[in-house]
Amino acid sequence: MYFGFDGNTEGFEQILSRIADKQVGGKHNHKEVRAYARCLLCILPEITINSNVKPEVQILLAALTAPGLPHYDRAFLATCILKLLEDSANSKIEGTKDDNDGIPF
Q1: Entry pTM
Q2: How many domains does the chain have?
């Protein structure tokens, strides 16, 4: 565990949702969004997500830290990361169903 972080994606997703929301995200300036992205990059190895999507999430977070991007680009990147996290969670749920020998619960 990294500084007591348990790998849960809930807080990670909430931060990205604020960045992705063009209304709420507007409350964060570019410097703040870049700081969030750098911090999220630091804990990414500890995030419990499908290892197939981690490299793409890492690249998108790194892109969020780039200077000079307008907020709508940062919002788009955050939305892409959220979609990857959602797909990762859905694939884990589907994998869990398969592990139960066809039992749907």
Answers
A1: 0.78
A2: 1
